Structures are given as structure tokens and as C-alpha cells.
DNA sequence: GAAACATATTAGTATTTTCTTGTATAAGCT
DNA sequence: AGCTTATACAAGAAAATACTAATATGTTTC
């Protein structure tokens, strides 16, 4: 498997403190950044938490009421979460239900563990 | 333990599709957002990966060579990672060595697992 | 102590992001 | 078909972010 990497600038002679570092996988980086930057925003984080908290799908109208931004902003936020693979969406009549993906569940769980939520 | 929450706007009458959702813990949210938004940036993500890849501490000069931004930008990025609790720093002479925290290790590992890096 | 080096800080600018308003699409109801 | 509701899309304004350049601080070396 060919693996793109971000070039390591330090190809020259070894300086006093500087040992060359292992490069970072560019594909992995792109994917992770999409996920992290999608989650790392007030509105989207809160939407995601609420989606993850619900048992089987939340419709957009629920979410609109909960966060303090316009319908349009909620829609855009959800689209971005979807693009990042953090939610799935399913249409039911004229409603649209969002559910968390495994990625979302795993990451939120990790964050909870790290904070020591239940200590 | 008192637990701040973000108010759930949907306190009114129950609409067609809308069931009220569980609120989101505001403290947890603040902490998570600091972590996520710190990681969710090109420069900082790459710095963090390189710090995590190294065995025992990376000095700033190594990092500067690796990412394509100014010394100042690197310093600012590292400060932000530090503020978010993602790295520790230790001074050794005039160099400063950065190391990943448990949070960083855990999150990067989770991300790797989710991507299925080793499949 | 002065020069050179490693890193941090400040201030300003450029870029990116996020929101709002207005409009479009699509489904359900009468 | 026309009206209403649910959601998405587009364009632009406003806010937040990330960079650069310049300067400051602290360390080493001579």
C-alpha cells in the first residue's frame, strides 16, 4: 500500500538538538482533521451530543429548538457532521432523522473517559 | 455535584415529531471543545502527531523544520496544545521539549482504530 | 557583558468559519 | 392544485482564527 506523507523538512545535516522525526500519514491526517474540526465547534458539538444521547434518531426540528441558532445554521451544521462521517441520516416522510455513527460513539466515549465523567 | 447544563429550548408543548432531548453538560462541553478545536487544525494536528510519534520529547526546533509555518506560528500552536492539556513541556537548557499527554495518546489511538490503520 | 541562539509575545493582517436572510425543493394536507 | 411544514441551499455579513513580522525574554558561549 502506497502511503502519502507530508514531507519532513529536516532533511539536512543533524543539528544540536534536532533528530529527524517520523512523517505524518497525509491520508490519515485529512480524515482525522475532518472529524476533529467538525466536532470542534460549539454548535456542532452540541448537536452531536444530543444526537448521541437520543435512543433512536433525532429529527432536525428537535435540534433546532435546542441550540440557539437559525434553522439554516442547524441544517448546515448537520450537513457538515454528515460529511465528516459522524452521523447517518434517514428520511421518514418529510422529517429527517439523524443518528450517531460508530465514530461518534467511540470518540465521545473516549472524551468522557478522559474527563473522568463518572469518578 | 452540581452540574451546569445548556438549557433545552424545547420546554413548550410537544409537537408532532419533537420529543425533548437530554441536555448537554456544559463543563464537559467546554473541556471537550478545547481539546477538539485544538486538535482540529492542520498545523496543530501535525505537530501533535509528530510529538506523539517521538519517543521522549521533541524540541521546538525539530518541529519548526517539519511544518511549513513560521517559528512564531509553531510557538503559538504549541501553546494552544499545552493550554488544551494535550502536551506537557519541560525545559532543558535553552531548549524546550514537548511530550504528549495521556489525552493525546488516547485520542490519537481512537482515531487510528476508527480509520482501521492496521487493516 | 556582548553576541548568538531558542523560544515566547504582541500587534496587525489575511484567511477561514459561522452565522443570518432569503429562496428553493419536497412532502403532506385540504 | 394551492397552502403549509420540514429541510436544504446560496450569498453575503460578521466574527473568529491563524498566520507573518517585529520585538522581547531567557540561555549559552566567548
TrEMBL record, chains A, B:
Record key words, sorted: DNA-binding, Transcription, Transcription regulation
UniProt keyword Metal-binding present: no
Pfam family, one: HTH_5
Keyword Lipid biosynthesis appears in the UniProt entry: no
InterPro entries, alphabetized: ArsR-like_HTH, HTH_ArsR_DNA-bd_dom, HTH_MetalResp_TranReg, WH-like_DNA-bd_sf, WH_DNA-bd_sf
Domain HTH arsR-type: 24-119
Sample GO molecular function, one term: DNA-binding transcription factor activity
NCBIfam families per UniProt: HTH_metalloreg
Protein's recorded name: Transcriptional regulator
Amino acid at each position: 500500500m502506497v502511503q502519502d506523507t507530508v514531507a519532513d523538512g529536516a532533511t539536512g545535516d543533524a543539528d544540536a538538538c534536532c533528530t529527524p522525526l517520523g512523517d505524518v500519514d497525509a491520508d490519515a491526517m485529512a480524515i482525522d482533521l475532518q472529524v476533529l474540526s467538525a466536532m470542534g465547534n460549539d454548535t456542532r458539538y452540541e448537536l452531536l451530543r444530543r444526537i448521541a444521547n437520543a435512543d433512536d434518531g433525532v429529527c432536525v426540528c428537535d435540534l433546532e429548538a435546542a441550540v440557539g441558532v437559525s434553522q439554516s445554521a442547524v441544517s448546515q451544521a448537520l450537513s457538515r457532521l454528515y460529511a465528516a462521517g459522524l452521523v447517518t441520516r434517514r428520511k421518514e416522510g418529510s422529517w429527517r432523522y439523524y443518528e450517531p455513527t460508530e465514530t461518534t460513539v467511540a470518540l465521545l466515549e473516549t472524551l468522557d473517559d478522559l474527563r473522568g465523567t463518572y469518578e
